[in-house]
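RECORD CONTENTS
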Amino acid sequence: MEQPRTVKQVATGEKVIAFTFDDGPNAVYTPQMLEIFREAGGKATFYMIGEQIEANRAVAEAVHAEGHEIGNHTYAHPNLTAIEIEAAAEEMSRTDALIREVTGEAVRTFRAPYLAANEEVLALAAEMGYATIGALNTETHDWEQPGVAHILDKSRDHLVPGGILLFHDGHGDRSQSVEAVRALVRELVADGFRLVTVRELLEMGEGR
């Protein structure tokens, strides 16, 4: 049996790419991301923290209503490799229940906080029915507000078919992330890319 792993890209011949957003839902920045994708006619995946779903339930409901995917990003954003596996399971299952309340659907994908997933965490996620999702553009460090130009520069090398891109819509001032995503979405749509959810991407090809 193949070992569970973190998926950063899916092998596909189609011009499709998946934008993902961590640490929301946020009352200020998540709606701005939704507007960008509404205008572009695309979909995205939002890796939500359980505490933030409880604080901003209406925003989470708006994400689902507009056809985007909601993925599990734990309840309180701990480093799962630094806590007992039972506590990690509770972090994931608690948020799974919250997402199901919002969507009425099974949750298919998971992203570990800090992208910290060892074999034990990967096995737990697989056991819970999740694909564990990483990203190609991990050098953007958009959570540090490094400037729109930096975020764009560190993302443009990864605008490839089947790619998964990571940005943040929660936990701080995300205005730079919004502006960078707006620019990238315009470029990709102009280049003939379709913007899809991670779940759609996984259904198209083989993750790697």
